[in-house]
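Anyone able to model this chain together with IPE?
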Amino acid sequence: MMRAVADSPLSQELLDRIALLDPERVPRHVAIIMDGNGRWAQRFTLPRLDGHRRGAEVVEGIVDVGKEIGVEVLTLYSFSTENWSRPKLEVAALMQILKGYLKKMVPKMQAKGVRLEAIGAIDALPHDVQKTLAWARAETAAGEAIVLNLALSYSGRQEITAAARAIAAEVAAGTLRPEEVDEPCVARHLQTAPYPDPDLMIRTSGELRLSNFLLWQLAYAELYVTDTLWPDFTTADFLDAIRAYQGRERRFGRTGEQIGGGRGATRPGMGDEG
Ligand code: IPE
Ligand code: IPE
Ligand code: MG
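re: yes, here you go
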């Protein structure tokens, strides 16, 4: 997993930090609420859009480091259902930033083995953005190094509601029995079905809330909140979060003694180990 320096786009300093991690306890799935773009811009009395632009630039480095340490899925909260209520101009600009990001990044993602995916109400996005997104997904479909999963027009409650509706339809059609509706069945009907649940959820800019993000999937994620605003969030900050995660004891309802008393997040099976 850890490649020689010569193959890596990462600085020696970053590689040294990575070497401090426990390779056995790398989160498989990291979810991030990229918050604070507006406040960052405000700090420099810049328009909010400059914050969003700067925020988009931060993503590449985080993906590179995630890939380097062996994270399998990185889910980034990029636009919530509730964000549609922002001023029209800001929404429009966010959509164009997204489109521009995809156009610019697809060749790099292809070169790095990054597979772009998306969850959320994709059909609510402007048509041109939907087209670019579909193109980006197709162009990167062969990527095997890491999944970059963008949550776009995403709402955890809507996702769960849609799953309930789909399950109800199957029951009504007679293809599913009510007693077969268990937790794995619900999980299979979520848009995140192909991925393990996030092990670690990072939120930047200090807000202590979920803002409707992955409500089902975060049930047992470790939470890490930093006051750093997203445009200021560095790859070193990301590695700090991973280190903090590795220092956590994940109990999944058991006692510390049952876990073994030792510190450090275990690499999770789906809660079914021993
Ligand atoms: C996060 O930054 C980006 C999106 C929600 C699209 P914000 O725009 O929410 O920044 P703050 O919270 O106002 O600082
Ligand atoms: C959450 O941030 C959504 C994204 C980061 C895309 P918000 O800034 O929209 O969240 P609230 O409104 O402060 O909870
Ligand atoms: Mg915000």
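The CA atoms of residues 143 and 268 lie 24 Å apart.
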